[in-house]
Amino acid sequence: MGNIPEIPVDSNGKTIPVIGFGTAEYPFGASETLRDSLLHAIKLGYRHFDSAALYQSEQPLGEAIDDALGLGLIKSRDELFITSKLWCSDAHYDCVLPAIQQTLKNLKLEYIDLYLVHWPVSVKPGEYELPVKKKDLLPIDIKSVWEAMEECQKLGLAKSIGVSNFSCKKLETLLATAQIPPAVNQVEINPLWQQKKLREFCENKGIRITAYSPLGAKGTLWGTNWVMECEVLKQIAEATGKTIAQVCVRWVYEQGVSVLVKSFNKDRMKENLGIFDWKLSPEDLEKISQIPQRKGFPGLEFISEEGPYKSLSELWDGEI
Predict the structure, then answer these.
(1) DSSP string, 126-149
(2) 48 has binding-site annotation
(3) Quick one: which residues bind substrate (predicted)?
(4) Which of 73, 183, 193, 294 has the highest CB neighbour number within 10 Å of its CB?
């Protein structure tokens, strides 16, 4: 798969490229240029594409895959690793199978490589939106939702299944009843939110981590400019002759997890891949380990006095 190294994603020998390309634009709604950006990403060597029902990016991604096949940039769809996600409004036992079937229809694919439960949250069926309507928040029955996810894998619609934004405690709950353990937990990780406890927990349980917002996702609902304005990272970038973005992506890569980058700027798309021929020094790693920690996207949208999560502590089980 291009020049991007891969790491195992499950115990069956399946692998995931260590750098993936994110497709979420905010506000959601596929722009005219998304299809072209995705095609350009394939030209540059990206092979993992991260999509979701929420992002409205599945259709243009499917079109870009068609384009890439037609142009001979890839010989078969199997050269790509495609992730999509189950939105909260479909996080109900009866909605999961129809949701992945709609995702596959949007992508014009027979299977996806990885299907994730987007949040440990359910809302009333019907709407794909963030922020969600707080009056629509419902308790998630993770046991039955996961049973339906397992069915998707057994049917071959998803090669692997996993979760996103799950705390250690929520993973424990899921693992207690799961027949197929989650292959991946996709979570926010960057030098300002390093998630050491969660990474350790997942490693012990054989769950792979994919990091989103490695640069802090500035300009989105779930992002801040804290990472890009961090003095420690600025100093390391200057000293190494790299960009802050490259320092962040390299740092995440050195933690042994896969990472999603997202820029539709052609220069930055290329720059984000330039992390494999150099290393951060032990001194730099030590400096980064000392950065005060703060989570960029706490998920306040899912907190409500009337809802299942009345505080951030309940959503994250005291892990933020």
Answers:
(1) T---SSPPGGGEE---HHHHHHHH
(2) no
(3) 118
(4) 183
Cα–Cα distance for residue pair 224/206, rounded to 1 Å: 31
Beta carbons of 115 and 169 less than 8 angstroms apart: no
Rounded Cα distance, 91 and 222, in Å: 21
Q: Calculate the CA 69 to chain-centre distance.
A: 25
Distance of CA 205 to the CA centre of its chain: 19
**Residues annotated catalytic, as ranges:** 55
Tell me the backbone φ, ψ of residue 218, rounded to 5 degrees. -55, 135
Residue 187: strand pairing partners: 211
Q: What is the pLDDT of residues 73-95, one digit of tens each?
A: 999 999 999 999 999 999 999 99
Q: Name the nearest CA neighbour of 195 among 257, 144, 135.
A: 257
Q: Where are the alpha helices (DSSP H) in the chain?
A: 34-44, 58-71, 93-107, 142-154, 168-177, 196-205, 231-240, 244-254, 266-271, 282-289, 312-316
Distance CA 172, CA 192 (A): 25
Per-residue pLDDT at 221: 66
186 contacts 116 by C-beta, under 8 angstroms = yes
The pairing of beta strand 137-138 with beta strand 122-123: antiparallel
Cα distances (angstroms) measured from residue 82 to each of 16, 38, 131, 226, 259: 10, 12, 25, 29, 14
At residue 110, the pLDDT reads 98
Bond from prior residue into 27 cis (ω within 30 degrees of 0): yes
